[in-house]
Design brief:
Blueprint (H helix, E strand, L loop, with lengths): L18 E6 L10 E6 L5 H15 L1 H6 L5 H15 L5 E5 L9 E12 L12 H16 L2 H5 L3 E10 L11 H6 L4
Antiparallel strand pairs: 1-2, 2-3, 3-4, 4-5
Helix pairs in contact: 1-3, 3-4
């Protein structure tokens, strides 16, 4: 099944960064129904996304929160390195809200650090240091070992993710769930 020389690259025929979907929110924010779009995370936004994930995902994600990951600087730095690495695949997704201030930047509402995983490689090719993040990756490895997705889908590459975070004030802004499907890796 695995071609040892195979390397996945984003097809040149797919624009980068590409806007995958636009939608109107369901609830008003400051008297206006906001407009959102989902797009690839451009290179100049990567560090912003890493900070966004650190501030939100590390604080709220169930395993991170229950283990107190933010109290383990080594674990936090490991996750930051991992996010920087996976974003290099150019398949990470961000959801932005249009800024009502015409001079303002779009507002980052959500990020999904999706990346390409090869069947014979670790989730991320970095040294995992920090006791809290080691526990998290050990838990994830147990879950992944339960069912080999590569064999089940008969493929050498999968779109995987290393964290999805949506700011609380933007949760539930899409009625049909299509954004969620797009956002979780419909590329």
């Amino acid at each position: 099944m695995l071609d040892e020389t195979a390397i996945w690259t984003r097809p040149q025929s797919v624009a980068f960064p590409k806007v995958w979907r636009r939608f109107k929110g369901l609830r008003e924010i400051n008297g206006t129904v906001p407009s959102f779009w989902i797009q690839d995370i451009p290179e100049n936004e990567r560090e912003n996304v890493v900070n966004f994930m650190t501030d939100g995902f590390c604080k709220e994600e169930t395993l991170c929160k229950s283990l107190g990951l933010l109290n383990d600087p080594e674990s936090v730095e490991t996750l930051r390195k991992a996010w920087r690495l996976v974003l290099l695949d150019n398949v990470g997704l961000a959801c932005y809200m249009e800024n009502l201030d015409p001079n303002g930047k779009p507002i980052l509402a959500a990020a999904n650090c999706t990346h390409i995983k090869k069947c014979d490689e670790e989730e991320v090719n970095i040294t995992i240091t920090g006791s809290k993040v080691q526990q998290i990756f050990a838990t994830l490895n147990v879950l992944m070992d339960e069912k080999n997705a590569f064999e089940f889908l008969e493929t050498d590459f999968l779109l995987s993710a290393l964290g999805l975070y949506v700011l609380p004030q933007f949760r539930g802004q899409d009625s049909d769930g299509v954004s969620v499907v797009v956002f979780v890796g419909y590329v």
